């Protein structure tokens, strides 16, 4: 398949690109610095996900789009002073641009990473995480809420992916995926998320659903001694 990954140089974006390429898909990667992605099977395009002309030109000819937009800057600085290099509403604006282009070009499969605690999973957040959302991440979570609503109203074959707290360590096993918001802990690796994003491109099982992702330690067999 020909897959466009928007927001391709963030942690989840890189993981999605790697998973897709490993499965033999041809990937176009869009971000402000995507030309740094030079692996075989990847075409990196430097550009702004909120620019309609750029996105429209890239969406044409693809079979699916994965959106992993976000703000990689320090969240304290973003809360106090705003982001220095990325629009605060990049998630919703970029996703709207992608959806509009997909409709124009007849591309159906849309896979979007948002965040656990958006929409129906908000009441399921642990108390400490709710405090962080309220005090530190409120503007970003509000924009992610707008993003999710755009996805649900898109009329496309969408999958919304809601990981819990992302970590860089490649935790063993697949992510635990739940359409009811259940989670098995408050961490999941970016690599696990990337693999699930690739799953959602290939498989229609979760089309039209919001899927919470977490790491399930119990699903990984314990090592036994010699």
Strand content: 15-25%
State the secondary-structure class: alpha/beta
* Shape estimate: globular
Task: Provide the succession of SSEs.
Answer: EHEEHEHHEHHEEEEHE
Poorly predicted runs = 222-226
Counting H and I runs of at least 4 residues, what is the number of helices?
A: 7
Round the mean pLDDT to the nearest integer and report it: 94
Q: How many individual β-strands? A: 10
Describe this structure in words.
- The protein starts with a strand and ends in a 12-residue tail after the last strand.
- The protein has seven helices and ten strands.
- The radius of gyration is 17 Å and the shape is globular.
- With 226 residues, it is α/β, with parallel strands linked by helices.
- Helix 1 links the parallel strand 1 and strand 2 (26-31).
- The protein has helices at 11-22, 52-59, 75-81, 90-105, 127-135, 138-152, 190-202, and strands at residues 2-6, 26-31, 42-46, 64-67, 109-113, 157-163, 166-167, 176-178, 188-189, 209-214.
- It has an eight-stranded mixed beta sheet, sandwiched between helices. Strands 7-9 form a two-stranded parallel sheet.
Brief write-up:
By secondary structure, the chain is of the alpha/beta class. Helix content is 35%, strand content 20%. Helix 4 packs parallel to helix 6.
């Amino acid at each position: 398949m020909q897959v466009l990954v928007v927001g391709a140089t963030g942690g989840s974006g890189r993981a999605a690109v790697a998973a897709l390429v490993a499965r033999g898909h041809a990937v176009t990667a869009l971000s402000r610095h995507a030309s740094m992605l030079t692996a075989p099977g990847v075409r990196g395009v430097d550009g702004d996900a909120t620019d309609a002309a750029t996105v429209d030109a890239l969406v044409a000819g693809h079979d699916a789009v994965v959106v992993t937009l976000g703000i990689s800057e320090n969240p304290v600085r973003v809360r106090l002073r705003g982001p220095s290099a990325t629009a605060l509403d990049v998630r919703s604006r970029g996703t709207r641009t992608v959806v509009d282009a997909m409709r124009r070009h007849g591309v159906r499969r849309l896979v979007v990473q948002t965040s656990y605690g958006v929409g129906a999973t908000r009441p399921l957040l642990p108390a400490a995480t709710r405090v962080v959302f309220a005090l530190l991440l409120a503007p970003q979570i509000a924009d992610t809420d707008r993003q999710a609503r755009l996805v649900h109203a898109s009329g496309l074959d969408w999958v919304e992916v809601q990981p819990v707290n992302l970590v860089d360590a490649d935790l063993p096993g697949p992510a635990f995926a739940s359409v009811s918001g259940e989670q098995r802990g408050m961490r999941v690796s970016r690599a696990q998320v990337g693999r699930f994003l690739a799953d959602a491109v290939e498989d229609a099982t979760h089309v039209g659903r919001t899927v919470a992702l977490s790491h399930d330690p119990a699903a990984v067999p314990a090592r036994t001694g010699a």
